Amino acid sequence: MPVHYELGEDHVVWITIDRAHAMNSLDMDHFAQLRKSWDRFAEEDEAWVAIITGVDNAFCTGADLKTYIPEITKLQKEISTRQVEEIDGYRIDDGVKAKFKKGGVWQNRWPTAVEAYESEWARFKAAPSR
Predict the structure, then answer these.
(1) Which residues of the chain have pLDDT under 70?
(2) Which residues pair with 117 in a beta bridge?
(3) pLDDT tens figures, 20-39
(4) Alpha helices, DSSP H only, in the chain?
(5) Rounded Cα distance, 51 and 21, in Å
(6) 3-class DSSP state for residue 53?
(7) CA dihedral sign of residues 111, 116, 122, 126
(8) Residue 14: which of 60, 54, 64, 44 has the closest Cα?
(9) Which residues, in sequence order, are CB contacts of 105 under 8 Å at separation 6+?
(10) 46 secondary structure, DSSP code
(11) Do 13 and 6 form a contact (C-beta atoms < 8 A)?
(12) Tens-place pLDDT, residues 68-81
């Protein structure tokens, strides 16, 4: 079931989550549909107010963990193995590599937690006292 978008003559938009079987919880597809609804609302001059609601007896119970966790886990694995470098036009590693410097040399990889801490600690110690 989709996320419905209805603009009334009164300039009010009704965004309705229609996943009654899952108490209107959202999986990745429905999060994307909801995002598109908000983008559409932002672009429509005749839309002044948006009301978000759900069908049946639930507004929205959040992420549908039965589907969302496996989907996000799969995506995280693809990101960590560099199978995915861009999501919806956003580069995943922009800015992170540029901030990571070790021994005066820019690193072309993700820092480990220890390296990130050491890098930040070195910047903190080098900063002028306040």
Answers:
(1) 1, 79, 82-125, 127, 129-130
(2) none
(3) 999 999 988 898 899 999 99
(4) 28-43, 65-80, 96-99, 113-126
(5) 22
(6) strand
(7) positive
(8) 54
(9) none
(10) T
(11) yes
(12) 888 888 877 776 77
Q: Which domains does the chain have, with CATH numbers?
A: 3-91 (3.30.300.220), 96-126 (no CATH)
Q: Which residues fall within 8 angstroms of residue 55, CB to CB, at 6 or more apart?
A: 16, 17, 18, 19, 20, 24
CA-closest candidate to residue 93, choices 109, 71, 115 = 109
Q: Is the pTM of this model over 0.85?
A: no
Please give the full DSSP string across 77-96, using - where no structure is assigned.
Answer: HHHHTTS--EETTEETTTTH
